[in-house]
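User: Please write out a complete single-protein record containing the residue sequence and its fold in token form, without commentary.

AI:
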Amino acid sequence: SAEELVTNLDSVPEDIRGAVRNHGGGHANHTLFWSILSPNGGGAPTGNLKAAIESEFGTFDEFKEKFNAAAAARFGSGWAWLVVNDGKLEIVSTANQDSPLSDGKTPVLGLDVWEHAYYLKFQNRRPEYIDTFW
């Protein structure tokens, strides 16, 4: 699968590694992104995810502020992520179509901050787009 290839980029032949990182990463990133969106979504998580977020970040609102800051600070194109790394939640940002899978991290939540994701509705107002994610 694309996810397996992106997770194990060192096993991919060097002459196609860049293409696999870009296109495989884009596929893996968008597959997760589209699967988590919902027209009736939003609101705070529940259960184990809620407990983990509160343990790591304080409140859900504090988590959102940090996540939004990571998304807004991404220079150029890329993604903001909530990932599991060594059993702990963390917020990271990746450039272009790079996937946290390539760094051994498991994405839980991702936000596409490529300009094409928001330009038609928000033009260059990325922070407004980010706010609508929630």
Observations:
- DSSP finds six helices and three strands in the chain.
